[in-house]
Amino acid sequence: MIRRLEDVLVSGREGLAKPDPRIFELAVERFGLERQRTLFTDDSRVNVEAAARVGLRAELFTSHAALRRTVRALGVPVPAHAEDAR
Question: In sequence order, what are the residues at sequence separation of 6 or more whose Cβ sits closer than 8 angstroms to the Cβ of residue 66?
């Protein structure tokens, strides 16, 4: 999946960190994101809630299988993985 990334935003370089809403706003601006079409996932509920407050689709990361299902449901082709059958 990493092959699909076009760029990254490194909080240390920006002087911002999650859950500060400015980091999400910066990502939206820098990458020209459509908030409702952008999925943010994290294992921290606080970060997920902050992303949702700025209008991003936000999901708490619970497992790789669950994330693959979410991404597939959004129409992104994700190869099957043995863990998906569990």
Answer: none
